[in-house]
Fold each of these.
Amino acid sequence: MCSLAVSLGTEGPRSTLQAVQGAMGLVCPGGAVAVTVYRGHSGGAEEGQCLADFLRTVSLRHFTVMEGKYLNHEETAPYWVLIQRK
């Protein structure tokens, strides 16, 4: 199993998607990509939405995608996404 971690939050939606797609291509079967999404900066909400829109289209046959958010923090608090390769 191999896993990768990606921390996002300042480069914009295009580079975010490129980084996540690249990591997904590198991770081994049974491994995972962990992503931290920072929404508190200018453009952060758009970046997070763009990532979520992309991840909703990922094949369930090849990946499982999970998301975790703080329930007692502000809406702009960071959250995580775990992308597990089957």
Amino acid sequence: MPSGQVHPPPGSVGPSPASLDDNTALAKLSSAAPVLRASDVTTTLADFAIITFAVDPDRLQRLLPPEFSVQRVVIDGAERGLVSAVPFRDLDFRFQFAPWLRFAFGQTNYRAYVLFRGEPCVWFFGTSLATPFVLVPQLLWRLPWHYARMRFDTAWQDERCRHYHLHTTARWGRAAVEIEGTDEPAGSLPGFASEAQTALILTHPLQGYFRRRDGRVGSYSVWHERLRLRRGIARRARFELLEELGLIDALSKPHSVLLQERTEFHVYLPPHIVAG
């Protein structure tokens, strides 16, 4: 199979140039946002980054519940899975029932790109949150979220990131990141057949799943407009969680780095438990 084509595992129905009009699917996802309810959240994300690694797909598969399968891609003739660390700063995290009550904190999501019932989505290994209020989602929804201290040092000129430094200290999810931005748009990345397919799978997944603290599988969804990401160059990208999972090591280089200064997300809450 040529490099640049998404390769679903046998029996799956993953998107590919032959089976799915990616531009149409992406346009549908980017259309008007679903109606927000009182329990839903709107938040402005600053210093948004997607730092992705190509990993052994079989090793990644062993970390997933059996009903999930790795979204496999072919890079330089070899099958790979993809995982990302996604750090950003929430500037004004607010529930619809109390929009005047706003919270600001750093956050990093750790996710893998997977298929569930034939549909592309993400599997969350967990999230680092730089606020004591992390206890609320931990206790209320049993989310695999963990307290961390995060220090961001970033500078932007127009849409280009001049530098992006992140240092995270925590019992779970320590990280050290040094990135230099470029003017190059995200475009089509290795393992994907087109810019639309890259966005559909890597930068625009709206449904996420996770292992709750009680062992059951949970899910929640988000919505955002199509991102306007620029490529970055990683001078340093250490993520202790991904190393502990055996997916990368200290010398691993990212598959890609994508950056955007600011965007707005809607988060549809509360999460729900997925029936077996």
